[in-house]
Amino acid sequence: QVQLVESGGGLVQPGGSLRLSCVASGSIFTGAAMGWFRQAPGKQRELVATIASTGTTNYADSVKGRFTISRSRDNAKNMVYLQMNSLKPEDTAVYYCNAVARNRQAPWGQGTQVTVSS
User: What does the pLDDT profile of the chain (118 residues) look like in tens digits?
Assistant: First the structure.
């Protein structure tokens, strides 16, 4: 069964940290480059971090140096993580994970809300 389940979001003060987790179930994700996306109210969904099956990572300029993406495999499930440090109010959004390539993407999960506010 193909499924994406994100977790780990919450309310945090500016400068704080959160670690997001994603369980990507389904063989479609095996070997696929995975990414974390986010969508703020009134804005389009944007790709913020990617990790290839080789471990090579890339980041949007807006999060470079503050976010770290990683991945692991637990039995038949692909796990994708996003460590977010030095959070800013502009990081507030719903965060989603999925494959980067459109032909490997599954239906979007429910996402996890990240709110950065004092």
Answer: 889 999 999 999 999 999 999 999 888 888 899 999 999 999 999 999 999 999 999 999 999 999 999 999 877 788 999 999 999 999 999 999 999 999 889 999 999 999 999 9
Distance (Å, whole) CA 6 – CA 114: 11
Q: What is the pLDDT of residue 73?
A: 85
The strands making up 77-84's β-sheet, listed across from edge to edge, are 3-7, 18-25, 77-84, 67-74
CB 36 within 8 A of CB 66: no
Which alpha helices (H) appear in the chain, and where do they start and end?
none
In angstroms, the CA 112 to CA 114 distance is: 7
Cβ(27)–Cβ(35) under 8 Å? no
Q: What is the DSSP letter of 100?
A: S
The distance between the two most distant Cα atoms of the chain, rounded to a whole number of Å, is: 41
Check residue 70 and give left, alpha or beta (phi > 0: left; psi -120 to 50: alpha).
Answer: beta
